[in-house]
Amino acid sequence: MAKKKWSNATAEPSAQDKPATLKDLLRPDILAGLKAQADAMKAEEQARKDAARAEAEAARKAEEKRLENDFGHLLEKSKLDWRKHK
Question: Which segments carry the region annotation Disordered (predicted)?
């Protein structure tokens, strides 16, 4: 007996059979407004991250500058090998 060939005859759903998405239901002007608002929020978030990064960098530099003038810190950091400077 020969094997039966099963064909994948599943018809692909047409565009009319697909369920409607929110993008399809909204008017184009509302959709454009929402996209603009999303872009503005992303830009605002990026600006806030950049400001936080710059603030952290400034704080790090200020701390480094303060420690440069702290004799105790410099003494701890320095090597006590006096033969190098002889």
Answer: 1-23
Overall domain count for the chain: 1
Tens digit of each residue's pLDDT (9 = 90 or more) over 3-41: 777 766 555 556 567 888 877 888 889 889 999 999 999
Q: Would you say residue 10 lies in a domain?
A: no
- Check if the beta carbon of residue 30 is closer than 8 Å to that of residue 37: no
Question: In this structure, is residue 58 part of a structural domain?
Answer: yes
- What is the per-residue DSSP string for 24-85? HHS-HHHHHHHHHHHHHHHHHHHHHHHHHHHHHHHHHHHHHHHHHT-HHHHHHHS---GGGG
| Domain boundaries, position 54 | 26-78
Q: pTM to 2 decimals?
A: 0.53
Residues 6+ apart with CB under 8 A from 67: 73, 74
